Amino acid sequence: MEPKxxxxxxxxxxxxxxxxxxxxxxxxxxxxxxxxxxxxxxxxPASRVIPVSADQQGTAEGVYLDYNGSAPLDxxxxxxxxxxxxxxxxxxxxxxxxxxxxxxxxxxxxxxxxALVGGRASNVVFTAGATEANxxxxxxxxxGSPADRQRxxxxxxxxxxxxxxxxxxxxxxxxxxxxxxxTDGGYVDxxxxxxxxxxxxxxxxxxxxxxxxxxxxxxxxIAELARAVGALFHCDATQSAGRLPFDLEEIGADLVSLSSHxxxxxxxxGALVGTRHSLRRLSPIIHGGGHERGLRSGSLNVAxxxxxxxxxxxxxxxxxxxxxxxxxxxxxLTGSLMSRLSGVREIGDVSRRLPNTANIRFEGADxxxxxxxxxxxxxxxxxxxxxxxxxxxxxxxxxxxxxxxASESVRFSVGRFTMREDIDVAVESAxxxxxxxxxxxKEGE
Length: 445
Prior knowledge:
Elements: H1 21-25, E1 36-38, E2 41-43, E3 63-64, H2 75-87, H3 97-116, E4 124-127, H4 130-143, E5 151-155, H5 160-171, E6 176-180, H6 190-196, E7 201-205, H7 219-228, E8 232-236, H8 248-251, E9 255-259, E10 270-274, H9 276-280, H10 302-340, E11 344-346, E12 357-362, H11 367-372, E13 377-378, E14 384-386, E15 389-391, H12 394-398, H13 403-406, E16 409-413, H14 420-444
Parallel strand pairs: 3-13, 5-6, 5-7, 7-8, 8-9
Antiparallel strand pairs: 1-2, 4-10, 9-10, 11-12, 12-16, 14-15
Helix pairs in contact: 2-10, 3-10, 4-5, 10-14
């Protein structure tokens, strides 16, 4: 009897990849040591994934609160990938039965990825991640742009893979670039966008949710404005897909970028999902054997794609309940910090943000120093190292936040394997770190 669970079948002539019944029935567990319900809390080992030395303060294990940076691999996904790695052989483009089996596994994953964003499986182009997908959307559109459409519009808070690609296209003379401002709440100013748009715009690229603040953009309204002038609308949905409902047809998006490792899938695989018409307007940026509708040459990473498909299926099925659960944990974190510390303020419009994200300013405490002193808790800042100097986040500066305030902001992002006791550890660690940094800052004045 074939094992029950997520089966990547390939027809009568071949044997499917399968995940064990144990893994499929325990949505957030490590095999038999899965999370379980005790009272009103979920408990288990899954959230503690960072080993620390015995002399470090806090628990003997780490607490991971950087899901927006990269989410831990779901053990159900890992098991499916292991089957693909150990049982699979052959190139998915080959016509022998080994190749057909690999191709069928990819097609199964393609269905799940498409469903995550309301797209069609035939319009999924697999890439090495959202960075490549964003590059394909912008550079691919620019390569085939008509002479009367030589302008691209992005928001001031886009991910670097959109921002830097747009700047590169502008600097090499391929396209003119306009950057639409955001409100002090962190979302796109629709009135400013409408004033910028005209019939010479080729493409508008705006993310659905910001990775640093979690703030949601009015993507349906943006899509409508872009469509009114005949421009393509590209949406980087890396942070929102799998956390909130997203349907590209309902929104009116032409191209959507996704990343596997933000939804507890493997690193190194992503996708550009589009409409048939929009994909036809793109030119490839990687040339070779003409894989993926001719838009992304190279032998397919079958195990990674299979993992991405499994992660998409899980995220799609669990996102409603999981969003409510992580929102409660996030609010527990922010509420506790505000009650324990003075000078604490949340960044961005908290009424329109991802359920798992909080960007918090600790007045008088440098964010890099706070994060460095929060072990065993992992959080992050939005700053970047430039020429040896730490620079504040471009996203926060674009929101009109002063440089000193931006340099005091820490992002916490919880996720599937975060539990209540992890939040309590994080609160204690953050309070101690902030108090220590503030004390050291005053002594150094």
